[in-house]
Amino acid sequence: MSPPPDHHDYHAQVHHGQQGHPGHAHGNQLSTEQPMFCPECGAPVQLRGTAVSAVCEYCDSTIVRAGIDLQLIGKVSALIDNGSPILLHSKGKLDNVPFVVDGRLQVQYERGTWNEWFLNFADGTIGWLADAQNQFSILKPIDPNQVAGRVPSFDDLAPGQPIRVAGRMLVVVDRRGAAYKGAEGLLPFRAEPGMQFYGVDLRGYNEEFATLDWGNDPHHDQPIPYFGRAVTLQSIGLFPLRQFQGWEPARPPA
């Protein structure tokens, strides 16, 4: 759920899922796949794994799973082309565990936009690939009981503040609210355009990246913690990648 110091925040936000925020479904796979169709245009829609919502590839409607039915909750805003080289459905590996890029959430705040890419791993877990200003990181959720009631409130945290999170000393690098701008593909939460999310980004002394995600309500004591690290697209073998004029085409990993 990440971006560099001044973007990483949304990881928290975009991983909260069940507690009101985007993306944080912590892992339990939703089981069987069955044919489903967009209630707006009738096109086929596939919700699998932890996915709760999807953006129809044909009419850009945001659709959520409601039991065995699909519910239409609105149209997504057009995604801003911010030059990301990442493509929906690309594949890669983190620590030798394969993953697929199943969705994208585009986040907006006062200084611009960044992307959070939803990853489904072959071992049934999920993660987020944060993508901002050509810097990338992957974060995965850990047990929220490790921080529930054990970290300062969202309002009491500030950049430069050291805190202990899940037994690790970290330093706050950013605290902010951000708005969901647009999306594509599958997401593990109810992605309603315009929703605000709140999170705090932290860094560790051993190059750890972390996020505390309060979802769309900053006034509770049970943020979802995410931990991870910076990556390069080459180090995770992500392929295929978007091609840009004048750039050498990406090659499949050996």
Task: Note the overall shape.
Answer: globular
Portion in beta strands: 35-45%
For the report, how would you describe the main beta sheet? 8 strands, antiparallel, barrel
User: SS-based structural class?
Assistant: mainly beta
Helix content: under 10%
Give the end-to-end Cα distance, rounded to a whole number of Å.
Answer: 28 Å
Description of the molecule:
The chain has one helix and 15 strands. It is mainly beta and 254 residues long. The strands form two sheets. It has an eight-stranded antiparallel β-barrel with strand order 7-8-9-10-15-14-13-12. Strands 1-2 form a two-stranded antiparallel ribbon. Strand 4 and strand 5 form a beta hairpin. The chain is globular and about 50 Å long. The protein starts with 9 loop residues before the first helix and ends in a 23-residue tail after the last strand.
